[in-house]
Structures are given as structure tokens and as C-alpha cells.
């Protein structure tokens, strides 16, 4: 199976260019031109992990050439629109740190400085949390922790003063407002103003526990546990990670180890076992166990979830491989889109697709963790 997956990932590179990648299904459907975006960023990070794991330079070479096409000598980023103030656009900046240390190209450092400056200008809630986007005022989404805070931590580690206080504070705000003490799950969104149409007027919370939102958050915690130095701040991350996975496992599908699109509604009409969020959770469990911040037995659960995804949704057809069961996109609002209201019915209404990077990249990341703990098939 390892050989087949390796061939699959390489085939994605072979069928991709700067202008059109084989994995960004969302942009293809929308007819949008190539741009600096979080979807490609997720896949590029997965390719760098594949290069590190296998020693095959084709993965890293593709990433470098792809990113070079967007970064000018002065660090300016082609197609990036900082005035939109969206945390999603920060995520692709994670590739800049390993590329800088690999190549020494100063433009990667300069580009990271530009993204860091954008975060300094990002609007905040009255509690100090970043708005998810300028078009989502006063709103905190779980997705945003992955998109911005991992980059912020990498910046502090490589180019900053090593101060992680603001990162920890924003994550603790998420825990304070978005964690359900009874179900031990995190809501997708929180409106600090309590005014947006999808938010509970008393709590500011959205209505549902969307799997991929929790997957983003869990993966962010696992990545931060690797980045932060030992100490009290890392212990905060470790505690939240253990609490989250312990709660989540109550909702795992017994047969596959996967999780449902709306996590706490397993078995209800229309709900389905979803690939991207399940892959993120498997990645989190495997990486957390490898780092020693989660109990070692969670590695077995992560392997079960990975195997469940492969058996249910990964299919091999001669020279092609398809990965199904991926929710294409989901969100909350904005005000002119009341369809995206955070209800159970809404999350089930979004398209389910194959081979989109929001599922492929987490599965590849998960695969690299599987290979690290189990080198031989």
C-alpha cells in the first residue's frame, strides 16, 4: 500500500502546475486563477513532509518552484491581498520557514515578515482574538487557529523573540467560549458581539460541532506542541490536546475509527463519515503519541482511523487513485449568505467530492506519521 500511496502523491505533482494544481478542486469549480491560498498551502506542507520522510527531492523541488512563482525578491507575494484581512491567507506562509532554511533565499524571510506584519494589523475581538476575516467581524472560527497561530509560532521560533503569550491567550479564549463541557466537543464558531444571524444571542456560539473545524484545531494543537519549547505554555497546549482527543473518541465509529461530518450526530439521516476531518484527527493522535504529549495507546487509535479511511474511501484503479468522502467547503455566513447558518442540515448540504486537497493533504500528513511509527508496510 505504501508504494501505491507514494505513486499517488507523485502523480499529483506530475499533473500539477503553478496555474492549476490537481488537488485544488474548490478553485477549479469556481473557475478562479492560481493564487496564494490556504488549500495549496496545506498540500505544500504535506509534500515537504513527504520529502523529509522519504528523501525524495521531487516533493521539495516542486514546493520550491511553486512558491518561487509567487514570491518576488523583495518578499512581496503575488496575488495576496492583505487588505482582505483573512487568516486563511496566512497559512501558506508556513512553507517559508523550511524553504528558507533549505535554500537561504532571503525573499522567503522577507515574505514571512510581510505575513507577520499583516497579523499585527489583523482586527481583534474585545478579548484579543483575531477576527477570522474582515468580512466576519468579531468572529472566531476554529479554522483560524490552524491558519494563523501555527504560522505565528513558527515566526516566533525562527525570526521573532520566542514570545508565545498571545498565541496561548487566543487559544485559551477558544477553550473558554467554544468548548462544550457536556459533550466535550468544540463548536465551529463564536461571535464575540453576539449579533450575527447564526450565533446564539446569549453565548455567541454557532449551532453544531463540525468535524473539519475541530480537525483544524486539533492539528494546530499537535503542531504547536512540536514547535513550542518545554515549559508552562507548552503544557497548556498538551492539556487541551489530551482533553480534546479524550472527548472526541466517544464519537468515533466503532468499525472504521472515523468520525462523522457533524460529530455528535452519528447515525442520523444524511450524516456521513468524513475524510478530511477524520484524517486530521488521525494525524493528531499519531503525532501527539509520537511526541509524547498524548498517551502512546492513541497511536493505535490513529492507525485504526487511517486504515478506516483507506478501506472506505481510497480506491485504486490501475494507474489512478481516488480519495473520496471529502466535504468540499463549509462556513458560517457572511450576512448575505443565510444558507450557511451552522445547522445540521447546512453541513450536510455541502458537496462531497474526491481528491480535494482539504482531504488529500491531511491524509498525506497522516500517512507520514504512519510511516514514522511503522516504516515497513
Mean pLDDT: 95
Order of helices and strands: HHHHHHEHHEEEHHHHEEEHEH
Count the DSSP helices.
Answer: 14
| Percent helix range | 40-55%
Distance between the termini: 7 Å
Q: What is the overall silhouette?
A: globular
Beta fraction of the residues? 5-15%
Write down the Rg: 19 Å
Major sheet description: 2 strands, antiparallel
CATH architecture: Alpha/alpha barrel
Give the number of DSSP strands: 8
What would the CATH topology be? Glycosyltransferase
User: What's the CATH C level?
Assistant: Mainly Alpha
Counting helices, strands and paired strands, the structural category is: mainly alpha
Low-confidence runs: none
Strand adjacency order, main sheet: 1-4
Question: How many separate domains make up the residues?
Answer: 1
Can you lay out the helices and strands and say which pair or pack?
Elements: H1 2-14, H2 25-30, H3 38-54, H4 57-68, H5 96-103, H6 106-121, E1 139-141, H7 142-158, H8 165-178, E2 179-180, E3 185-186, E4 189-191, H9 211-227, H10 232-248, H11 275-291, H12 298-313, E5 314-317, E6 320-323, E7 326-327, H13 344-349, E8 352-353, H14 357-373
Antiparallel strand pairs: 1-4, 2-3, 5-6, 7-8
Helix pairs in contact: 3-4, 3-14, 5-6, 6-7, 7-8, 7-9, 8-10, 9-10, 9-11, 11-12, 11-14
Overall description:
The protein has 377 residues and is mainly alpha-helical. The protein has a single domain, classed as Glycosyltransferase (Alpha/alpha barrel), CATH 1.50.10. The chain is built from 14 helices and 8 strands.
Amino acid at each position: 500500500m505504501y508504494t501505491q500511496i507514494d505513486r499517488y502523491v507523485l502523480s499529483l505533482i506530475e499533473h500539477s502546475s503553478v496555474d492549476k494544481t490537481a488537488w485544488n478542486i474548490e478553485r477549479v469549480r469556481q473557475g478562479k486563477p492560481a493564487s496564494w491560498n490556504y488549500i495549496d498551502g496545506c498540500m505544500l506542507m504535506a509534500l515537504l513532509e513527504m520529502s523529509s520522510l522519504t528523501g525524495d527531492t521531487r516533493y521539495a523541488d516542486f514546493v520550491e518552484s511553486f512558491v518561487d512563482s509567487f514570491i518576488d525578491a523583495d518578499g512581496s507575494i503575488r496575488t495576496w491581498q492583505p487588505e482582505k484581512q483573512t487568516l486563511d491567507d496566512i497559512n501558506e506562509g508556513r512553507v517559508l520557514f523550511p524553504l528558507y532554511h533549505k535554500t537561504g533565499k532571503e525573499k522567503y524571510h522577507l515574505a514571512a515578515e510581510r505575513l507577520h506584519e499583516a497579523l499585527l494589523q489583523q482586527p481583534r475581538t474585545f478579548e484579543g482574538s483575531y477576527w477570522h476575516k474582515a468580512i466576519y467581524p468579531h468572529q472566531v472560527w476554529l479554522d483560524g487557529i490552524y491558519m494563523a497561530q501555527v504560522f505565528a509560532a513558527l515566526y516566533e521560533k525562527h525570526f521573532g523573540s520566542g514570545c508565545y503569550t498571545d498565541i496561548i491567550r487566543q487559544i485559551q479564549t477558544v477553550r473558554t467560549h467554544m468548548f462544550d463541557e457536556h459533550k466535550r466537543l468544540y463548536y465551529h464558531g463564536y461571535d464575540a458581539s453576539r449579533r450575527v444571524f447564526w450565533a446564539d444571542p446569549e453565548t455567541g456560539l454557532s449551532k453544531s460541532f463540525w468535524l473539519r473545524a475541530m480537525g483544524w484545531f486539533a492539528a494546530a494543537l499537535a503542531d504547536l506542541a512540536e514547535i513550542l519549547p518545554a515549559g508552562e505554555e507548552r503544557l497548556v497546549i498538551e492539556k487541551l490536546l489530551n482533553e480534546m482527543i479524550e472527548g472526541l473518541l466517544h464519537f468515533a465509529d466503532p468499525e472504521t475509527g472515523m468520525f462523522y461530518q457533524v460529530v455528535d450526530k452519528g447515525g442520523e439521516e444524511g450524516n456521513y463519515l468524513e475524510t478530511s476531518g477524520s484524517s486530521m484527527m488521525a494525524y493528531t493522535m499519531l503525532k501527539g503519541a509520537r511526541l509524547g504529549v498524548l498517551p502512546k495507546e492513541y497511536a493505535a487509535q490513529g492507525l485504526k482511523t487511517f486504515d478506516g479511511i483507506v478501506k472506505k474511501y481510497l480506491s485504486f484503479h490501475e494507474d489512478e487513485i481516488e480519495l473520496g468522502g471529502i466535504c468540499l467547503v463549509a462556513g458560517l455566513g457572511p450576512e448575505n449568505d443565510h444558507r450557511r447558518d451552522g445547522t445540521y442540515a447546512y453541513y450536510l448540504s455541502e458537496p462531497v467530492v474526491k481528491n480535494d486537497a482539504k482531504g488529500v493533504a491531511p491524509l498525506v500528513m497522516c500517512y507520514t506519521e504512519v510511516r514514522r511509527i511503522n516504516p515497513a508496510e
